[in-house]
Every structure is written in structure tokens, then in C-alpha cells.
Design goal:
Elements: E1 3-7, H1 12-23, E2 29-32, H2 41-47, E3 54-57, E4 62-65, H3 67-78
Length: 79
Amino acid sequence: MSVRLYALDGCPWCEKVHDALADAGIEYETEWVDALHSDRDAVKRVSGQRGVPVLIDEARGVTMSESANILAYVDRTLA
């Protein structure tokens, strides 16, 4: 799977990104993260920070955070 989303269950910003990916028909894999920031080492390894959502598009070499940026990227590039 070339698109991966790091997300937290119940996060409204993560849900917006999930919805955008689903609406665009994008196949992606979700990596569910721990609620505690201090336990989000996997997110920090891939993005340099512990916040979610984080989208990784391996095919294009893109890693991004901030839901507004991700939503624009999905609309502009992946949809």
C-alpha cells in the first residue's frame, strides 16, 4: 500500500482525512496510534513530530502533517 495514514481513534481531524480519502476512492492503510503523545514513537520516526494525522504517500515520496495540508493534497494530487 503506497498511502498510509497515521491516526488516532476519535480525532476529528483524522476523521476528516479518512473521509476525504474514502470519498476520493483512495486505497490506504491506517496506522492507529496511542492517545498519549509520549507513546507515538512511530509517528515521530516518520514525521519528526508526534501529532496526527500524518499522511505518507510512498509512491511520491511525500510525508505530511496538518489536516488542512493533507486535505488539500488529497484533493489536488490523489483524487
